[in-house]
Amino acid sequence: MKKTVTLFSAAVMISTAAAQVALHGISVRGELVETTATEPELPEEFTDGFFIQNEDWFGHYLGSINWVGSDGTVYYNVDDKVNGAEVLGNISQFGQIYGDYYYVTSKQAPRFIILDAKTLKVQKSFDTTGVGDGRDVLNVDDDKLYVGGANGIIVYDKNEGVFKGQVEGTSGGQVGMMVRVGNYVFAAEQSTGVLVIDPATDAVAQTIERTSAQGLTVTRDGHIWCTLPSESSIMRIDPVTFDTKVFEIGKTLVSLWGQCKPDYVCASYTEDALFVVNGASRHDSAKLLSKFTIDEKGDLVEDDTFQFTMPTTYTGLSFYGSPRINPNTGDLIATVMTYRGGNHELLYINPTTGKVKEEVDLFNDDGNQYYWFPSMPVFPDNNAPEVDIDDISASIGDTFSYTVTEFLSDADNLPALAVVEVETSDESIVTVGNDGLTFLVSAVGEGSAYIMLTANSNGRVIEKTISVEVANGTSSADMAADAGISIVMAGEKLRVAAPDAGTVVVFGMDGRQVLSQGFAGSATIDLAGLSSGAYIVKVVSANNLKTQKIVKM
């Protein structure tokens, strides 16, 4: 364990003249000394604070995890101390807590580790995954997760505890950041773009081609934001339609493909905003941090009131680890260090002003300087999600829209990242459509029914039953659902046919009516004027009714 290693004096290690630093490692000339520092006693559970995932000192030690208590106390090498030995692989850069477990990937064996999220006891360890050096890890749902690597993405079956083959359609290139929003997983692949993966089939459904694509993050509204370092731009991705828009931000962004690290971009939990490290193309030279807010049109606007200045406590500090917002305190947490080694600091940054609220030296248990090479903060998941939806009273023809960002709350996570499933008990009374972020409820027949909603927010699952009473309309006995009605989307044309004359109504996934038109038996309706995306079509013809979801490309 690292605490048993003989250490150099802090004075010698801080002296840059006495140190020869190399990327991921350091060679130091100095005098050995004895130390008498007392280590703080470890917490019984790691719930009140946050972790720092470390690459650690390559060539000397494997990866490691530090714990920062809510009182500011830093506990070093907690993974080693809990398990009595070094347990992570070499260069452990990515970590995710999901439900009761903490998942870590490393570049070298063991490449994939599962820890208990509260105690850090090792649950499973894998020397190999099948996709080479470890990159990002993403829990898709309760049953499986994806592990990115130097050679694509592999599926891990959590129920059986085994890897089950690669995601179909990946080119075998290096995969970086991954996120799931709604019904799809989005993964950045080097020199390719963003892969849109259907988790139901574990296959690439579409590729958003952009050779400069790199880091991914998600804002409160569910939009995905992808950094494009070589273009000094950020790309917005719609998670339902996959439409994109690129914003040139005029900043030199860091390219991290060569370092295989989490990207230098993150999103706020309390406002529609992004935080982006910039100022240099190298990871060990970037000293600037900018904030961009998202206006009512969904466009990026730089927030000039956010003024971050790198501390001058030590000479030559720059960002090393990826910054993240602490969902419990709202602070922007970042780690910085002097050029390619040297002093390491933990920064607590005000996300509104950019002011550094507090600096904490990251030494070791003996109070001496140590080369952690911190990669990213990882936050515990202590709170269950909550759903706020009332029972429904409706008339036939009524349609209701529910957006996950409005009805779901979670103190630890963005609601837009939750996986939501809805089912109806009786489709002759009420039908549902769900694009992953918004679900639509349509009353189609008189009577009583209910909707079963399941929301999985980062491994914490909540279920809710919503009662639906439909009255004041044509009796369901007289209304034949779907009978003889055809709804077909062909290109930009919507074609409907029915036994009798009727009306076709089109709703957006937000519940608003966007089109209504009568027809005599059949009609072809041009939808060229509508934006790409999912819609609900309702056709009413005499005593017949049909509701169907369509997607306009």
What are its keywords?
553 residues, mainly beta, Immunoglobulin-like, five-stranded mixed sheet, elongated, disordered N terminus
Characterization of this structure:
The chain is an all-beta fold. Among the domains are: 383-479, Immunoglobulin-like; 482-553, Immunoglobulin-like (Sandwich). The chain is built from 3 helices and 48 strands. The strands form 13 sheets. Strands 26, 27, 28, 29 and 30 form a 5-stranded antiparallel sheet that branches. It has a 5-stranded mixed sheet with strand order 41-48-47-44-45, with no helix packed on it. Strands 5-4-3-31 form a 4-stranded antiparallel sheet. It is elongated and about 85 Å long. The model is unreliable at 1-36 and 474-480 (pLDDT under 50).
| CATH level 3 topology of the domain at 383-479 | Immunoglobulin-like
* Span of the ends, CA to CA: 56 Å
Could you report the average pLDDT, rounded to the nearest whole number?
88
Strand content: over 45%
Alpha carbon gyration radius: 26 Å
The CATH architecture classification of the domain at 383-479 is: Sandwich
Q: Provide the low-confidence segments as ranges.
A: 1-36, 474-480
Largest sheet report? 5 strands, antiparallel
The secondary structure category is: mainly beta
The count of β-strands is 48
